[in-house]
Amino acid sequence: MLTFNVYDRVFFIHAAEYGTAFTLDRGRRQYVVTARHIFGEDPARRSIKFFHEKQWKSLAVQVVGIGVGEIDIAVLAPNMQLSPEHSLEPSIGGFVLGQDMFFVGYPFKMWADGGPMMCGRPLPFVKKGTLSAFETLSDPKILWIDAINNEGFSGGPLVFQSNLPNEFKIAGVVSKYRIAEEPVLDAECKPTGLHVEYHAGFLLAYSIKHVTDLIDRNPTGFPLPSP
Q1: How far is CA 182 from the centre of its chain?
Q2: 21 close to 10: Cβ distance less than 8 angstroms
Q3: Residue 149 backbone dihedrals phi, psi, to 5 degrees
Q4: 3-class SS at 117?
Q5: pTM
Q6: 3 state SS of 19
Q7: Which of 205, 13, 214 is nearest to 92 (CA)?
Q8: How far is it between the farthest Cα atoms of the chain?
Q9: 10 Å Cβ neighbour count for 167?
Q10: Which of 34, 89, 144, 145 has the fewest CB atoms within 10 Å around its CB?
């Protein structure tokens, strides 16, 4: 079971594309994290929309940092605190190959009504996969998950349960999935020269280390109140 401190940080957003974002607290400041490709051709976007009380609302943001090259990550500073200070550590420390990984978001623009507990925000979908492989010593740092993700999960958090009961950590940011091609055959089972694309069953996420590095180079998130 995924704990409330995870999905209470997740938001349904719209920029150039629809997708998912989540808040992350670091150094007494709050940030919004999502996938860079949701911004389209405008990586310096000054506002995004988020779904609240069943309508789209504008949120002013400043770009804190954008992943370079193929690193599909954008970190933003909102002009307001978006979520309570739920403890949720950004770390890959302690995960192991073959363990369960969870990703949270809004596939195909879908959401559920979570009632009063969501304070007007749509309840996200949760899916699970297996940590199949990872490259954390290279750049970019990539996590491969054996899972079927869908359009709309991009930008959402990839989380796992640590060794402590009911404690989850954010391991990465969901980016995309691996596409494979299958040749189309005719009635005599001969190749037609056409191909059909299909989901190969692997989700690609970029390590949360890319996010914390961007924040530490430009720590300009929204200031949180004193504890």
Answers
A1: 29
A2: yes
A3: -95, 165
A4: helix
A5: 0.91
A6: strand
A7: 205
A8: 72
A9: 14
A10: 89
Q: What is the mean pLDDT of residues 191-200?
A: 65
Confidence of residue 140 (pLDDT cuts 50, 70, 90): very high
Let me know: does 168 contact 161? Beta carbons within 8 Å: yes
Q: Give the pair of three-digit tokens for residue 156.
A: 């959402």
d(CA 180, CA 201): 9
Bridge partners for 202 per DSSP? 146
Q: For residues 161 and 192, give the distance between their C-alpha atoms in angstroms, rounded to a whole number.
A: 47
CA-based nearest residue to 4, from 153, 115, 130: 115
Span 169-173, average pLDDT: 96
Rounded Cα–Cα distance for residues 204 and 101 (Å)? 12
Amino acid type, 111 = W
**Distance (Å, rounded) from C-alpha 130 to C-alpha 203?**
10
Show the CA angle centred on residue 225, arms to residues 220 and 227, nearest 5°: 120
Name every residue whose Cβ is closer than 8 Å to that of residue 61 and which is 6 or more positions away in sequence.
Answer: 32, 45, 46, 47, 48, 76, 77, 78, 79
Cα distance from N-terminal residue to C-terminal residue, the chain? 29
Q: Which two tokens stand for residue 105?
A: 């978001």
Average pLDDT over residues 160-185: 80
Contacts with 207 (C-beta within 8 Å, 6 or more apart), sequence order: 92, 134, 136, 140, 141, 142, 143, 171, 172
